[in-house]
């Protein structure tokens, strides 16, 4: 089956194509070079004048796993207000800020997204996370395994074990949980909270193990690097949401000591203590540090106004935030000597000074970080806002007039505390294609997505060019998944099941015996039962392919 | 029916699907279709694994033995003609819960689990105010106080104390001691917890909300006119509160089925709010014990797919969740015109009495007071076929293995066949 997309304006930053008019060809689900002139085209789509990009990638979105299901259980009112009816093609589902997996897949595809990555998979909960993601239709998916507050790692560190043992454990975790990267959340803090500690600074010793968050960051970022895992350590820094936390964020950037590091939802970590309310933007300081640190990348975690729910592994921070719950309910959970979670519904209001400034801080970061290859477009769904707000966010970035109109509507004191109004930068379509396609694929180390070159998986999004970028990005004219049309005019026309992306770095199998012993002595689950087989993954994903990506040659 | 390699002889690390603990350390010996638990089996496991596959496992239509295809066709016919199908029981694994949800979507049915009346006592609290909870391995390593609220735990979860409380060795030392206080119940005669002498607070379980209210008031420093609560003197509750405040890592466990009185969700809520109050200063967690008969499995799967668990109708084409109107008992009184009853773990969990046609996808060997319209014997997950089951702490989904050869379809396969025939 040879497919041709004729006459589109191609935005493919991986190949430096910035609105170049070019025909695209797809054979059997993959992009191919232009065929010989006499070859028969089986299907042609005239996309003359349309904006054509690869399918978009969300590299940090909470779409599956225990904490999301807790959020779903807590929010019947959210689901009742936003049902998805069943059709001949699609099934019934529901939910605005904590949608069911079916609604999640349909809506991502309808916005032109074709791959989504769940950033917080607790190893003990990995099977649930993959089961849930298996029930997200259409898009490809993958996940990051969470380490850093698990007692096994902290014991290795407290015992002064060699970095190589830690590398083995990290590699075993990636293999067992079928993930593509490693995330650390409030390093050591989730464990410290189990000892009733309510805050853990970057250089503060864990109350029992005596190790510091900085040391945890160092061994994990080194492990990821030495194992050759392409995706850098994904860091949710200490002190989320606290005024003045920009200091620990700057410290976290320095703690990487030149190794690759990704700072996630950095908006929540860019707060100063200036002004009458002792809450201010430190976005300029953080952006300056990112600009000066070529080994660092970040995603924003933009706040947008309205009702949402915050769901995080960082139960220490979520316990602190529980008093702000709207509606007034929350869940805090310790989990299996592995990690924890906290779910707090939240309503961001433009007339609330703090919320308004959070909104502005996110935009400042987008506009002040120079290199679009090192900043990613996220709302930390659903923590800053549901992913369905992305088109609105894109318009805020691309349209200064619109942005300044919106700025004029927020709490006046917050307006006075932000530089957003004085920044002229407007993102281009090419830059949006970098943020949402080329750069995440490059960072993830997945060479087959995020671009339109020969050999790529034929995930393609075709937009009608429209000056209202929100409208344009809300409902693409066509979305192709693996070369097949799955969405037309912003509505699903075909349901299929996407693949999983994983890595499986090599390790010394001696670690398995240690884990077997450790779990048998201390846990209530056998270590071997954490391991998810490829057969299970395929069954979870309705027969989906499990694509394992190569690691670099290990650096050790 | 895929046929993975079936182990033989002594099989280690077997996961047991017969209660919400889903212990995964059993050793089971397989001799043909006969299974015997060798190690780590509680009484429930020994009995439940030990039941052989009955010789006659034919599907039946109105009591007449038929081929599977005929039973499937008849079930499909009943569903095609139905205006309000009720898909209930739902005692199955992840694959079965997935299939049931798809069937409900397709035929506009209602989904409701056989344990939902009890589970709602927790779910309503989660929907209204939330909670602070913990999981089994945290209890095993960290808990220095366990308060068992209105339950003896052991009758429903036989190895709980062995696995989570009585262990001396933890991540933090080798001389762990966890105090246990039973509130309103005590261990059954003949039961004990090795190394632990539990305390018992005698009181009226159905009035426990009073006690939790009193303790919250005491914690907030309020003056109280009451001299007692839930049938016990105030001093009892003051002492309990002080002990709970002093705990390094306290845990209050309850089992919703044991709180079997009207509006028990308010009792659960009062307890959870007390735990939240304590959590402002110290670490204290709830442990809502559940997960038996696949109740948390069905709940998890249906929640993640559509945002709603049990008691949800797909009749309008959109999910419509109503904990009151869409209960099995109410729909059987009025509304439902076909019942599909899924019960693959325990042959004693037969469908409730009803006059409407019933399709049973049940564990082999079920006997009925009133023969159902269609009976399709299905395999038991973790014995007759592989599968996955969620444990009672809502975090761990354990793999279940096939332990013996079986010609029985899984519930998921039977449902898929019915759906294909619709």
Low-confidence stretches of chain B: none
**Shape label of chain A:** globular
Number of helices of chain B: 12
CATH topology of the largest domain in chain B, by name, is: Dimethylsulfoxide Reductase, domain 2
Query: Tell me, what's the shape of chain B?
Result: globular
Residue share in helix of chain A: 25-40%
Tally of extended strands of chain A? Answer: 26
Structural class of chain A: alpha/beta
CATH class of chain A: Alpha Beta
- The domain count of chain A comes to 1
The computed structural class of chain B is: alpha/beta
Overall number of domains of chain B: 2
Please state the second-level CATH architecture of chain A.
Alpha-Beta Barrel
In whole angstroms, how far apart are the ends of chain B? 20 Å
3D structure, described in words:
The complex is a heterodimer of chains A (556) and B (422). Chain A has 19 helices and 26 strands. By secondary structure, chain A is an alpha/beta fold. In chain A, the strands form 6 sheets. In chain A, strands 1, 2, 3, 4, 5, 21, 22, 23 and 24 form a 9-stranded mixed β-sheet that branches. Chain A has an 8-stranded parallel β-sheet with strand order 6-9-10-11-12-13-16-20. Chain A has a 3-stranded antiparallel β-sheet with strand order 17-19-18, sandwiched between helices. In chain A, a hairpin with an 8-residue loop joins strand 7 and strand 8. Chain A starts with a strand and ends in a 7-residue tail after the last strand. The mean pLDDT of chain A is 97. Chain B has 2 domains: 163 residues, 3-Layer(aba) Sandwich (Rossmann fold); 171 residues, 3-Layer(aba) Sandwich (Dimethylsulfoxide Reductase, domain 2), CATH 3.40.228.10. In chain B, 31% of the residues lie in helices and 23% in strands. Chain B is built from 12 helices and 22 strands. In chain B, strand 14, helix 9 and strand 15 form a beta-alpha-beta unit. In chain B, helix 7 packs parallel to helix 9.
């Amino acid at each position: 089956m040879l497919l041709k997309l004729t006459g589109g304006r191609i935005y493919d930053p991986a190949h430096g194509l910035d609105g170049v008019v070019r025909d695209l060809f797809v054979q059997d689900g993959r992009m191919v070079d232009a065929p010989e002139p006499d070859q028969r085209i089986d299907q042609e789509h005239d996309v003359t004048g349309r904006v054509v990009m690869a399918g978009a990638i969300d590299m940090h979105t909470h779409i599956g796993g225990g904490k999301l299901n807790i959020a779903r259980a807590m929010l019947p009112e959210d689901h009742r207000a936003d049902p998805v009816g069943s059709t001949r093609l699609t099934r019934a589902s529901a939910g605005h800020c904590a949608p069911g997996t079916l609604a999640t897949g349909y809506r991502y595809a309808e916005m032109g997204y074709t791959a989504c990555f769940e950033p917080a998979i607790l190893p003990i909960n990995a099977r649930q996370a993959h089961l849930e993601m298996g029930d997200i239709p259409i898009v490809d998916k993958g996940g990051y395994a969470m380490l850093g507050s698990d007692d096994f790692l902290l014991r290795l560190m407290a015992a002064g074990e060699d970095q190589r043992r830690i590398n083995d454990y990290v590699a075993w975790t990636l293999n067992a949980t079928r993930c593509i990267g490693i995330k650390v959340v409030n390093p050591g803090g989730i464990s410290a909270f189990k000892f009733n500690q309510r805050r853990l600074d970057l250089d503060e010793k864990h109350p029992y193990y005596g190790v510091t968050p900085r040391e945890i960051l160092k061994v994990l970022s080194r492990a990821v690097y030495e194992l050759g895992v392409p995706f850098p350590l994904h860091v949710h820094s200490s002190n989320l949401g606290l005024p003045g936390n920009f200091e620990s964020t700057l410290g976290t950037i320095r703690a990487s000591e030149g190794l690759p590091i990704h700072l996630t939802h950095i908006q929540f970590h860019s707060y100063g203590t200036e002004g009458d309310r002792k809450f201010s933007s430190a976005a300029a300081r953080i952006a300056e540090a990112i600009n000066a640190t070529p080994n660092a990348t970040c995603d924003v975690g933009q706040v947008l106004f309205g009702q949402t729910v915050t769901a995080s592994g960082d139960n220490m921070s979520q316990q602190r935030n529980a008093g702000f719950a709207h509606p007034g309910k929350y869940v805090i959970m310790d989990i299996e000597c592995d990690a924890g979670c906290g779910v707090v519904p939240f309503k961001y209001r433009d007339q609330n000074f703090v919320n308004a400034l959070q909104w502005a801080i996110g935009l400042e970061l987008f506009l002040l970080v120079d290199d679009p290859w090192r900043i990613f477009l996220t709302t930390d769904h659903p923590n800053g806002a549901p992913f369905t707000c992305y088109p609105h966010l894109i318009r805020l970035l691309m349209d200064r007039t619109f942005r300044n109109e919106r700025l004029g509507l927020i709490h006046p004191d917050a307006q006075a505390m932000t530089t957003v109004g004085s920044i002229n930068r407007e993102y281009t379509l090419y830059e949006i294609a970098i943020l949402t396609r080329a750069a995440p694929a490059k960072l993830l180390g997945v060479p087959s997505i995020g671009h339109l070159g020969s050999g790529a998986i034929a995930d393609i999004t075709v937009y009608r060019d429209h000056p209202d970028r929100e409208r344009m990005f809300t409902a693409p004219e066509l979305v192709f998944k693996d070369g097949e049309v799955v969405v037309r005019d912003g509505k699903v026309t075909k349901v299929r099941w996407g693949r999983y992306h994983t890595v499986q770095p090599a390790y010394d199998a001696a670690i398995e015996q240690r884990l077997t012993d450790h779990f048998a002595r201390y846990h209530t689950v056998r270590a071997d039962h954490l391991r998810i087989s490829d057969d299970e993954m395929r069954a979870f994903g309705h027969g989906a392919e499990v694509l394992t990506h190569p690691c670099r040659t290990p650096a050790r | 029916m895929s046929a993975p390699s079936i182990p033989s002889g002594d099989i280690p690390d077997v996961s047991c699907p017969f209660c919400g603990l889903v212990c995964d350390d059993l050793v089971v010996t397989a001799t043909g279709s006969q299974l015997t638990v060798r190690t780590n089996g509680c009484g429930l496991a020994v009995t439940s694994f030990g039941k052989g596959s009955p010789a006659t496992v034919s599907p039946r239509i109105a009591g007449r033995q038929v081929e599977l295809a005929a039973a499937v066709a008849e079930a499909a016919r009943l569903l095609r003609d139905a205006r309000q199908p009720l898909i209930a029981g739902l005692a199955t694994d992840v694959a079965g819960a997935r299939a049931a949800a798809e069937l409900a979507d397709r035929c506009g049915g209602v989904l409701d689990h056989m344990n939902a009346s009890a589970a709602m006592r927790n779910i309503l609290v989660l929907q209204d105010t939330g909670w602070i909870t913990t999981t089994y391995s945290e209890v095993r390593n960290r808990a220095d106080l366990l308060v068992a609220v209105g339950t003896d735990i052991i009758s429903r979860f036989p190895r709980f104390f062995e696995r989570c409380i009585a262990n001396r060795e933890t991540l933090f030392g080798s001389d762990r001691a966890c105090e246990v206080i039973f509130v309103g119940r005590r261990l059954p005669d003949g039961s004990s917890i090795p190394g632990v002498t539990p305390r018992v607070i005698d009181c009226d379980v159905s009035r426990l909300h009073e006690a939790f209210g009193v303790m919250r008031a005491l914690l907030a420093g309020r003056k109280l006119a009451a001299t007692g609560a839930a049938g016990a003197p105030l001093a009892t509750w003051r002492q309990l509160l002080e002990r709970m405040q002093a705990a390094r890592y306290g845990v209050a466990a309850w089992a919703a089925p044991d709180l079997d009185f009207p509006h028990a969700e308010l009792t659960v809520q009062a307890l959870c709010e007390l735990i939240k109050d304590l959590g402002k200063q110290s670490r204290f967690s709830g442990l809502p014990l559940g997960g038996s008969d696949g109740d948390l499995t069905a709940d998890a799967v249906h929640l993640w797919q559509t945002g709603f668990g049990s008691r949800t109708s797909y009749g309008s084409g959109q999910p419509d969740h109503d904990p009151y109107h869409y209960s099995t008992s109410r729909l059987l009184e009025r509304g439902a015109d076909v019942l599909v009853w899924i019960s693959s773990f325990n042959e004693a969990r037969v469908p409730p009495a009803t006059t409407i046609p019933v399709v049973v996808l049940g564990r082999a060997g079920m006997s009925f007071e009133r023969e159902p319209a269609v009976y399709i014997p299905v395999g038991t997950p973790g014995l007759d076929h592989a599968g996955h089951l969620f444990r009672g702490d809502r975090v761990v989904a354990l793999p279940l293995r096939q332990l013996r050869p079986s010609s029985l379809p899984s519930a998921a396969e039977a449902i898929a066949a019915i759906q294909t025939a619709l």
